[in-house]
Every structure is written in C-alpha cells, then in structure tokens.
Amino acid sequence: MSTNGISAALKLQFGLINHENRYLTAEAFGFKINASGNSMKKKQIWTLEQDPDSQVVFLRSHLGRYLSSDKDGKVRCEEEVPNTDCRFLIVMQSDGRWALQSEPYLRYFGGSEEYLSCFAQTIGESELWALHLALHPQANLLSVARKRYAHLSTQEDEISMDSNIPWGVDSLITLVYLEGKYSLKTCDNRFLKNDGKLVMEHGPNTSFTLELKSGKLAFKDCEGKYLSPNGPTGTLKSGRCTRPGKDELFDLEESHPQVVFQAANKRYVSIRVCISANQDDETDMETFQMEIDKETKKCMFRTNGGNYWTLVTHGGILSSATEIEENTMFDIEWLGRRIALKASNGKYVCTKKNGQLAAVSDSLGEDEQFVLKLINRPILVLRGENGFVCHHKNSNTLHGSRSFYDIFTLLFSDGGYQIKSGNQKFWYVSSSGLVCTDGDKPEDFFFEFVEYGRVGIKAQNGKYLRGDQGGTLMGDGLSVNASSLWEH
C-alpha cells in the first residue's frame, strides 16, 4: 500500500510487441502462445508479478497461467502456480525495449508468429519486446523517494511532487502513448517537457521511454536523462542521472472519482462544521473521494483528511470514521440528474433546515436528492471489456475496442455531462443507436458509478453506452453489464 492508504500501486499490465510489430498472445485453446496479435485486446494483456526477494519477474496471461521455458527453450503458458521454469529477468535496452531472459537457463525469449522459443544465447532483434501499458492511462503519480504525489502547481506553472495525498483535479496525470513512447499530460491538457516546462504541443522533448526497475517506473527523456523531483517543491523534470536510482522511480496509483454534492438548498456539502450543506465554494473541504466496495457495490466517501462519512446515533452523519465498517457504507440510487443516498439503517439521507445531513427519511422527496458532480475528470479516457474508445477513422462514429485511446473533454451540466471530441463537436446518439461525434449542440449523458473502477453511461434515450460485437460504440444498452461498464 502507499504511504497514505488512499490506494494501492496499480499492478502493471501491458502488451509486449515484437520486432514485427505483433503482440504476444495467449490463446484460450491449449494454452498456446504466439506473436500474431495486431492490436492489444484481452488475449494480448500480461500482468507482471515481481519476486519480492530478487529481480526475477513472472508473466501471467489473461487466463491466469504463467509463461515458462524449459531447458530446451520450449515455451509454454499453462502453469497455474509459478515454478522455476517461470522465472525471467528483464534485460533493459537503451531504447526502452526488453529482452526476457530465462533465469534458470540464461537463454533469451523471442521469435515471431507461432515460432517462439527461449533458446537464443545472445540478444538479437527478434529477442526484443516493446512495452505497451494496458492500464487505464489516468492515474496518480507517486515519487518513491519523496513519498509525495504529483500535482499541477498553477503558482509555479509546473508539476510539483509535494502533495501528501492526491486530491482534486490537479492530481490527475494522463499518460499519452505515441510510437512506443509516453508523455505526461496535466489536467489542463498540457504536456510535460524534460526541462520541467508545460507546453501545449507534443514533441521530442515531451516523449519519454518507459523503463521498469524492481516493479517501479522510470521515465527516460530523448537525451538519456531521467525525470525526478527537484528542489523544495519537487519540480518534475529531467535531472543529471543517466541510470535510474530511487529518486527516479515512480508508482502509478488508481485515481478514484472525486466529487462534490449540491443539496436541495443549492449549497455544497462540506466538512467545515460537521457535515452540512452550507457552503457556496468547491474547495478540498467540499470534495469527497468515492470508493466503491468490490463485493457489496456500496459506496464510501472519504474526506481529504482521510476520514469516512459514517452513520451515528439518531441518524446523524459525521466524517469521523477512520476505518471502513457497515455504518460507512451507502447505497446510491441513480435518478438521472440527481442521486439519493441510503445509509446502513435503510433510511434516505436528507438535508435538514440548518443544512446538516441526516439519514432519517423513509421516502424520497426534494430534500433527499443531491446533484453529484465529478471534479477530477475534465479529460476523459474510456476503456471497456474489449479495449479503449477512440474515433473511427473514416466516419463520425466511435470504436469501443481499440489498443489506443482518444482523449475527450467532459463538461458538467446540472447533473449530466456533455462529451466533446477533439474537433470541438459533441457526442450524441443517433436514431439508429450509434454514438456519433459531430454534434453541433451538446447532448447530456448521465454517469452512474455502479462498480469499483467502472461507470455506466446513460444517454438521453435512457439506454446505456456499450460496445457491440464488432467493436462499434452504441447507445442502445438495456442494462449495466460487462459490455456497458467503462473504466474512466
């Protein structure tokens, strides 16, 4: 876990691309592997597991089986529990590509199509693999050495690594993947240059090679130097190092949705004086992190001080809980532009005359309804069960199953959201159910945070956005299920 317990470091998931620009693929039939994949879908995603006592890594397929090599170089992917043959070492190359070396037999893994083996004694072009992260690219960035998070500092006009907790929109970092390299984008759509400046245009000085060391990430610039925090505010820029040490290492952590609530009295819910709807501004005191329990799908609301909302005697709601328990869990009812919260006593949370919140209502009226506004996703990347959402090359529609993603702009509209494409046009659902991207007028969509890390998106026609069998994004889903849930 990280130092503050907000989130655990994300498990590294990625695709491996060989010298022929094909992805390493784990087939369901016979646990066979090949390097034939044209794009990164479920079968091309691998999870890295690090041996805690050494530099050894294990590669686990989407089927939960581990890559292995025997003494004759024969490669399989069928072990349910990693054994000696599953132990590999990553030999990092100067261009960021990997060579995978069998630890027990010291041979290198490579090849093409069905002809894969781990028998090469030296590293050639066919033994080199490029890393393509499969994580959702919007995350919080933690400096391993400083134990501080990155955020956009508008005073200094830089990315500073000096936050104790990743709070608010400024802490959102988006990784942009282009031609095998990564760029870091701030919440206001600017790229980080290697000299620490923030610029609108992408170029060689904003492109970094992603390297891995002991399960941590390092970013190498075009001059062979590494990003690190510098000075008292931890200005993120390239230092002098040409080899990554602890100062140059980072973790990516999941960025939970952070929200503000507006009650029926038009005031924001705040923790300044107990929990009350009594403020007109949106500050850290009015921002709450939504954490959805994986099993029960109930929601907890964390304050920037690390406490949770909790139900107390007589239906009162306080932000005093330090541990997750039954009284800190709430059910959310999604009502289009509004939401309602039900506490563990089965009562609805309402806003009393003095602004205080209390779970005392048996029925749903105006005082039991809130506007929920997502504040830490001004730019939106969506990933479904089969891949990312991006523009179709030759039409006004969208794919929902690609290896690469497009970045969209999210605009809040009285409990709904409008989604804008790079061409400054808006998303809408056509009469045939297609999600189109060339609207002149904005159309509202409604976000329902129903599962851990995933959102259902309802269109104005009352249907959910889903990816169909061919990968096209449709606005005709009848319910929230695997095809209509999106990492965001």
From TrEMBL:
Residues 21-131, 140-252, 273-371, 386-487 form the Fascin-like domain. GO terms for cellular component: actin cytoskeleton; cytoplasm; stereocilium. Keywords: Actin-binding, Cell projection, Cytoplasm, Cytoskeleton. The keyword Cytoplasm applies. It is found in: Cell projection, Stereocilium; Cytoplasm, Cytoskeleton. GO terms for biological process: actin filament bundle assembly; anatomical structure morphogenesis; cell migration; establishment or maintenance of cell polarity. Transmembrane segments: none annotated. GO terms for molecular function: actin filament binding; protein-macromolecule adaptor activity. Its main location: other. The keyword Magnesium does not apply. Belongs to the fascin family. This is Fascin. The lineage of its organism: Eukaryota, Metazoa, Chordata, Craniata, Vertebrata.
